[in-house]
TrEMBL record:
Domain spans labelled DJ-1/PfpI: 10-172
GO annotation, biological process: proteolysis
Gene, per the UniProt record: yoaZ
UniProt keyword Transmembrane helix present: no
Species of the source: Streptomyces virginiae (Streptomyces cinnamonensis)
GO MF assignments: peptidase activity
SUPFAM superfamilies on file: Class I glutamine amidotransferase-like
Protein name: Protease YoaZ
Lineage, highest ranks first: Bacteria, Bacillati, Actinomycetota, Actinomycetes, Kitasatosporales
Keyword field contains Hydrolase: yes
InterPro entries given in the database record: Class_I_gatase-like, DJ-1/PfpI
Keyword annotations of the record: Hydrolase, Protease
Domain of life from the UniProt record: Bacteria
Length: 210
């Protein structure tokens, strides 16, 4: 069996008002590097509409998602994280993943959902701004908040809404998608528009490493 065939899928949570732009770099480059990306909604086949007006039909229902069948769960930002507890089942699923030692990556409003679930209390993390999390009921992790583009603490990755590239970088590092020097070049090109990173990526691509 090839390495690609042996990999477990990456699961991307999708729900109404999902912020399209926050995971574009992550999913596109994971796919290019041979990782299967599967969408997870409340119900398989029940379409959701993103914040950008794009309709997505989930591959899998949340109740059928098992940590042992996945390599990573990505929780995206969405307006619904800030208007009630409708998305709380996705935060509860993140708890299952972390308990099973399977990574979770949360960006933007999804960090608020994790805060309400108590998953940030004992882990270093970030978000858009510290007071956004401080407003979340039950959040007890203020002392572990870090002012950073994106943060990885063991199996948990967090990022704010303005850092989709840094978010992707942390995911790629956690899943060993690129060698460290290639990852640095990838980030330099896509985050900093560093032209010197381009030949590094081209050389890595020619060698099958990017």
């Amino acid at each position: 069996m090839s390495e690609t065939a042996a990999r477990k899928p990456v699961h991307l949570a999708v729900y109404d008002t999902y912020a399209d732009w926050e995971t574009g770099h992550t999913t596109a480059h994971l796919t290019q590097r041979g990782h299967a990306v599967r969408t997870v909604g409340f119900a398989a086949g029940a379409p959701v509409t993103t914040m950008g007006g794009i309709r997505i039909q989930p591959d899998l229902g949340l109740a059928d998602l098992r940590p042992e069948d996945s390599s990573l769960l990505i929780l995206t930002g969405a307006s619904l994280w800030d208007t009630g507890d409708e998305l709380a089942p996705f935060a509860a699923k993140a708890r299952e993943f972390l308990a099973a030692g399977v990574p979770v990556a949360a960006i933007c409003g999804a960090t608020a959902g994790l805060a309400r679930e108590g998953l940030l209390d004992d882990r270093t993390h970030t978000s858009g701004v510290s007071f956004y999390l401080a407003e979340q009921p039950g959040y007890g992790g203020a002392e572990n908040y870090v002012e950073a583009d994106a943060v990885t603490d063991g199996d948990l990755i967090t990022a704010g809404p303005t850092e989709p590239v840094a978010f992707a970088r942390e995911v790629f590092a956690r899943l060993d998608v690129y060698k460290p020097d290639v990852l640095d070049a990838w980030y330099g090109l896509f985050h900093d528009s560093d032209a010197s990173a381009y030949p590094v990526l081209m050389a890595a691509s020619a060698a099958g490493d990017a």
